[in-house]
Amino acid sequence: EMMRTLNAQGLEEPLSDSELRTAVASSGKYGESVDDLFGPPKQTEPLPMEYLWYPYIPRYGLTIIAGDPSRGKSMLTSLLAATVTSGQEWPLSNERPSGKKVLILSAEDNWARVTLHRLMKAGADISNIRVMHRFRALTPERLELLAEYIEAERPDLVIIDTLSAYMGGARDMHRQN
């Protein structure tokens, strides 16, 4: 059956071919075609590199802090969050972050007993912090919700501590899945 929409006068009319393709593609219920996935690049002019903290943390990119347990990774991310939310100078620099919003997903440390104390000690402005209220693995549906939240709120820094915890129990950390 032909999909229909209401026009400006309130009368039904069939969707155009491009409108129908857009509706089908956005529904997520139908498969993608080869042309949807592969082809020449759509962006052919490079965008400028931007940094939250030059040259350590690029904007619109991924920075992974890795190391053995109990070596201070969460302490470091608390310092980074405090620097961003309060507008303090970056360590070893006289530059300041350009934004103030931070989103924290913390699977290992209790917010009220551990993380909040660390942030306050580091001088964070707690009013600029958002958190994931309950730990939940980032399933495809929750990843979509996270992407929607990031798109809407535009945090300057997103901390996921630890990434492996949010991958869910079906992941084998000894394999690249």
Can you walk through the features of this model?
With 177 residues, this protein is α/β, with parallel strands linked by helices. The chain contains six helices and seven strands; from the N terminus they run ββααββαβαβαβα. It has a three-stranded parallel beta sheet. Helix 3 packs across helix 4 (111-122).
Question: Secondary-structure blueprint of this entry?
Answer:
Blueprint: E1 4-6, E2 12-14, H1 17-27, H2 34-37, E3 51-53, E4 57-58, H3 73-86, E5 102-106, H4 111-122, E6 129-131, H5 140-153, E7 157-161, H6 163-166
Parallel strand pairs: 5-6, 5-7
Antiparallel strand pairs: 1-2, 3-4
Helix pairs in contact: 3-4
Task: Summarize the model shown.
The chain has 6 helices and 7 strands.
In spatial order, strands of the major sheet run: 6-5-7
Radius of gyration: 22 Å
Q: How far is the N terminus from the C terminus?
A: 41 Å
Please bin the fraction of helical residues: 25-40%
Estimated structural class: alpha/beta
Overall pLDDT confidence: 84
Strand count: 7
Q: Give the low-pLDDT segments.
A: none
Largest sheet: 3 strands, parallel
User: How big a fraction of the residues is strand?
Assistant: 5-15%
> How many alpha or pi helices?
6
Q: What's the overall geometry? A: globular
The SSE string, one letter per element, is: EEHHEEHEHEHEH
Brief descriptors of the model:
177 residues; alpha/beta; 3-stranded parallel beta sheet; two-stranded antiparallel ribbon
